[in-house]
Amino acid sequence: MTEGWKLFDAVSGRQAAMAGSPGKVKEFGLRFLLKKPPGGPFAIGNAALGYALLIISSGRMIDPQISEWISQLLRWIHVITAIAWIGSSFYFIHLDLSLKKREGLPEGVGGEAWQVHGGGFYNMRKYFVAPPEMPKELTWFKWESYSTWISGFFLIVWVYYLHADLYTIDPAVRALAPWQAAAIGIGGILLSWLVYEVLCRSPLGRNGVVLGVVLFFYILLAAFVFTQVFNGRAAFLHTGAMIATWMSASVFFIIIPNQKKVVADLLAGRSPDPRLGKEAKLRSTHNNYLTLPVIFLMLSNHYPLAWSSRYAVAIIGLIVIAGAVVRHFFNSRHAHKGSPWWSWGVAAACIALAIWLSIVGKPGNANLAVLTTPPTTETVAASFDEAVLTIQSRCSMCHAAEPVWDGIAVAPKGVRLDTPEEIARHAELIRVQSVLTHAMPPNNVTEMTLDERKTVASWLAQKDATLR
To answer: Which part of the chain is the Cytochrome c domain (predicted)?
Structure first.
């Protein structure tokens, strides 16, 4: 264990060097927060980067236990708001597509739908003109989107930028300081939204299919760029955050403002500009088809087989296609245009191909030990002892009863690897995280060597052989 603690001291020094000067980072953060840009997305970008730099410079001073609770609460809020946004979005898509024009409807009503829920019946009608009398209370569905993006932004800063050394930066990919990772991440997301806006407002926006294909390849390009600066986990998450930003920004800058203009025109007795409805419809359609891929990308940080593969970008593309065709099935079904069951076949093929790419592209293929002789009780015990020494020296800084890694209060996910018993109990997790995918140690911060991974793989192979 002495050697392990020496290594921890060395890695801690590298970690501190990567952090940069907290005072300088804080100064830049305040400068961005107090700066007054022209407005719009630039104001949001300045505020976002300023907040990120302040958290990076000051967040480490917060007690690790409080920091852990903040992370948990942010995740909780983000999931709740995302459920509200996605749920309301899917509901209104279903409602819009299921509306039917019936005899006897008031003038200006484009269709109605009858629904039953909770023991009661609901009669939903859609007005294409202002109703005879505007209701005193009119609900705007917007804060579900805004709250999801805001909570997600706070979460990505708190986890992926404050602890960039563990979750974002991989020196083997690109040696960055945490503030540089934050600047690249936030700047890249903001730039991608500006490109998205240009594409949607260009002549391509008149052809939804062509624009969709262009956006698909643009997502792949952005994902590739993220893999060139971040580790796989952060690249997947930033790709998801990029798409989610397009979706929420469309609600904030296009859909809601256009709806307000349409309502104002209807109240004034004017015919709304058809362009406003077309713009909002285009963005709503994008949000509809991109929802499922975004959810996958946000959840992927828990499953390294996808993001650790050398085919990570291709896997992202396959997930985008799978999510889009599944939504196409439900859109067609809700609109009473038939049930394109072929969509499920395409989605299944994409998922199967993604799984295959994750297996053949995993970095741990070279670690898989091939036994040339049958294992004995003695060889299994010896290989386990060697594996224990390796795991304790490389992993127990965090995965211990009392972690000593800066910013970690309890063993991540409750997984302890500081005793032989705990190591044996978590053998399958060790196999996936350290042998097959190299996801752990994160960014290889403790510099676990390939030979050490082979040592662990040898123990697992011998253990498996004795169970056959």
So the answer is: 380-464
